[in-house]
Amino acid sequence: MKRNAAVLFVLALVCTAILWAGWHNFKARMRAHQLEEEHMGMQAQLIPVTPGEATSSANPDSMEGMADLRGKAAPEFTLTSLDGQKISLADLKGKAVLVNFWATWCAPCKVEMPWFAEFQQKYGAQGFQALGIAQDNPSRDEMLKVAGKVGVNYPLMLADGKVGKAFGGVDFLPESFYIGRNGKVVEETSGLGSKDEVEANIKKALAAQ
Amino acid sequence: MLAGVSSSAQTLNLDSPARKSYVTYIAEPTTLQAGKPADVELYFRVTDAMHINSHTPMDSTLIPTTLTFQPTDGVKTGAMHFPAGTKYAFSFAPREKLTVYSGDFTVKVRMTAARAGSYTLTGTLRYQACDNLQCYPPKTVQIRAILNAR
Known about the structure:
By secondary structure, chain A is α/β, with parallel strands linked by helices. Chain A is 44% helix and 16% strand. Chain A folds into 2 domains: 1-43; 60-207, Glutaredoxin (3-Layer(aba) Sandwich). Chain A has helices at residues 2-45, 60-63, 107-123, 140-150, 163-166, 195-207, and strands at 78-80, 86-88, 96-102, 128-134, 156-158, 175-179, 185-190. A 5-stranded mixed sheet of chain A has the order 5-4-3-6-7. Chain A is elongated and about 115 Å long. By secondary structure, chain B is mainly beta. A 5-stranded antiparallel sheet of chain B has the order 1-2-4-10-7, with no helix packed on it. A 4-stranded mixed sheet of chain B has the order 3-13-11-6, with no helix packed on it.
């Protein structure tokens, strides 16, 4: 009787040990799986972006796909306007400058160009200067046609193949960079925004000393 | 597609780079009668949330959607019929109307195969795409139309 009880006790002990080991093993496997998932999640966040793509943005809706130049000195360029005048960003130091990339085939660009013309008229005396850079290499006649149609009163220039890259790569249009009087980019937008947003950005550029 | 389609639709997307193509050509082999002109239908699909200018955009500075074929021995291509575009306006300029294609659209091309046989026509669709806020540079999508003439 005593011997049976001892055997039963040992059997119960062995069973308990097996169950404990099994549970411990299960927990260890679950933990390992969880760590693996966390590691995968970290890898997913570490996929590199291609040049010109934004890595961070305070306003992702309006800056998607753009390099974030805000707070940085605006890239220098010298381009020739439709009337043959050489225009450098350096020549406009002390002014608030809007650098707008557009193309003759870009319908939303032609929606906002009359707004820029209106604000050029309104804020020009306060030191605002809009510049339009055509990214599609149009002929002079094509540019004149668009300029006449949308009533542009600010310089339109042809891109030189370098200026777009200097501004982070212009993959789609329109893209606009608002440069403060201090020469730094204060805001940048991609795509057609509202007229109120454009005006607010111009005021921001005028205020940046 | 014309009567006599001999196999199911196959999606071809030969635009490059792939991640920046906004129109897909949906190839379907077509059967027609040798020596008789027939309107061959070519199917295209514009990426969701995008649109491209129609064949006759309202503004002459916009880039129309066009189709061109390389010459193929034994096949004559003729008149093309593009669908009418849908009226579209950007949200911040509701009065500026454009005519665009979005979703699926079909172009009909008059073709005549001189003799019975199988022919492969190659061509390109040129288009310029935009979404509701911004536009992308003009692109082309390659077309391979297979005709079986009996």
